[in-house]
Design brief:
Elements: H1 2-36, H2 42-51, H3 59-62, H4 64-71, E1 76-78, E2 93-95, E3 104-107, H5 124-133, E4 140-143, H6 152-158, H7 161-176, H8 180-207, H9 210-217, H10 220-230, H11 241-260, H12 272-292, H13 301-315, H14 318-325, H15 336-363, H16 366-371, H17 376-387, H18 394-415, H19 421-447, H20 451-455
Antiparallel strand pairs: 1-2, 3-4
């Protein structure tokens, strides 16, 4: 189990690092569309990108398990082992449909002379005695048969022991999977929160440089730490002093990097409020979703994002009317080049990256997923150094070090769920102080003169 958790944590960390690279490229492309292509339409861009999630729903045309959810009931439903009797604890999945069909009564077909003929060695006396003792049945018989789609027990009986264990494990995974309607309900609950978070990020990019936006978006780590302690999904989300210190170290690194960036100094960016709002919505989205869904095996993530795209397509279009007539964002149809850039950015920077990020969140923890956002800052600056040939001082590179350290420190603390080394260090320091104080008192008592005490009694 420990090796499995370590493998999940390593895989999730690598996935989040890949997502960071995609996000940096996407933010630079978004800034290019808004400023160089003169198409500063954050709501339009967010609507198009989010609607592209609907591409995942085409899986209903090709993926048979999704099609089966539309036409048939699930084969298995998960049973709470606590609510089951002790002798039934081994069977923690039950059939959602009856295994046997309804009784059918059919007439019995007798074959003439088949049961009456006997061998020539038997006497007539024995034949007559057998006929007297014979039992007479009804003229109909009851027939019940297994459904072709439900005959799983018959299949398990024919398998070897190891194969049957694997089959039962697959059955448990199927039973643990949320049904289509439940996935749609969860998508409906979180689609608005996700849309507002993405819209805030797009608004920030339209007013501020991508590097500054990514710096301010790192406040999501603090929001996640607070929200995860209030709404914990598992022991890995528990608030500890070590995690708090790691978040503080990450924020210190953000401040150092921001001071190193010449564009951040001496003014308050106009998109700062939007960046902080986006960080809050992203943190709320990932913490509450992780609390709603225990693990990645329960939620079919492509189906979830497909429904998110569908609900945003249906419910968010009135925003165009409101923004157009209030002149906050006048509607404008993009050119062919702008459409191409928007679709490419949405396909890679949203459709692909979001499902990878959510997968990485389930493999690690909500705090690690949000702290990974802070790594987009040095990656963005590295992008500027190698592609835009911008020089940055040594202070920038010193600031990236605590950000990387805090990210991997939280990953390590999440692996050891109940480990809080900072708190243990504080406790040991307090105990040492108490012991030294006690030793000092004992030494003082031993050196105290007893002559004055004895003189009082003489």
């Amino acid at each position: 189990m420990a090796k499995l958790n370590a493998h999940r944590l390593l895989c999730g960390t690598l996935v989040l690092l890949i997502v960071d690279v995609i996000w940096v490229a996407s933010s630079e492309l978004t800034e290019y569309i808004f400023k160089d292509e003169n198409f500063s339409k954050p709501f339009f861009s967010t609507y198009v990108k989010t609607t592209m999630f609907i591409l995942y729903l085409f899986g209903f045309l090709f993926w048979k398990p999704w099609q089966n959810q539309c036409s048939t009931k699930p084969k298995y439903t998960l049973v709470d082992p606590v609510a089951v009797e002790p002798e039934e604890n081994d069977n923690i999945y039950v059939e959602a449909e009856p295994l046997l069909s309804e009784s059918i009564w059919i007439p019995i077909k007798y074959h003439d002379g088949s049961g009456e003929k006997s061998s020539g060695n038997e006497s007539d006396d024995s034949i007559s005695r057998q006929s007297i003792k014979s039992v007479h049945f009804n003229q109909v018989t009851e027939v019940r048969h297994l459904s072709e789609s439900q005959a799983d027990d018959a299949l398990l009986a024919r398998l070897s022991y190891s194969a049957s264990l694997r089959a039962k494990e697959n059955a448990l995974k199927t039973a643990n999977k949320l049904p289509m309607l439940q996935v749609a309900k969860i998508a409906l609950l979180f689609c608005v929160m996700w849309f507002l978070g993405n819209l805030s990020y797009q608004e920030a990019l339209s007013n501020t440089e991508a590097g500054v936006v990514n710096i301010l978006s790192c406040s999501s780590g603090l929001f996640t730490l607070i929200l995860a302690s209030v709404f914990p999904a598992n022991n890995g989300d528990r608030f500890t002093l070590s995690k708090f210190l790691a978040v503080v170290v990450s924020i210190v690194g953000v401040i150092i990097v921001s001071n190193a960036d010449k564009g951040v100094q001496n003014y308050f960016p106009p998109g700062a409020v939007w960046s902080i709002l986006g960080a809050f919505f992203y943190a709320s989205y990932v913490v509450l979703l992780r609390r709603k869904v225990d693990n990645e095996g329960m939620l079919d993530m492509p189906m979830f994002f497909g429904f998110v795209g569908l609900f945003n397509l249906v419910f968010m279009w009135p925003g165009f009317v409101f923004l157009h007539y209030t002149k906050i964002e006048e509607f404008q149809w993009p050119s062919q080049t702008q459409w191409l850039l928007l679709l490419c950015n949405g396909l890679v920077g949203t459709v692909l990256s979001e499902i990878l990020w959510l997968w990485g969140c389930f493999l690690t923890s909500s705090l690690i997923a949000t702290l990974s956002v802070s790594l987009t800052i040095p990656l963005t600056i590295f992008f500027d150094i190698f592609l835009k040939k911008i020089d940055y001082p040594l202070q920038f590179f010193l600031g990236t070090l605590p950000m990387f350290v805090s990210f991997f420190a939280v990953a390590l603390l999440t692996h050891y769920e109940n480990w809080d080394p900072v708190l243990l260090g504080v406790k040991r320091l307090v105990n040492l102080c108490r012991k030294s104080h006690k030793v000092h008192d004992i030494d003082y008592e031993q050196t105290e003169s007893l002559i004055s005490v004895n003189s009082e009694y003489t």
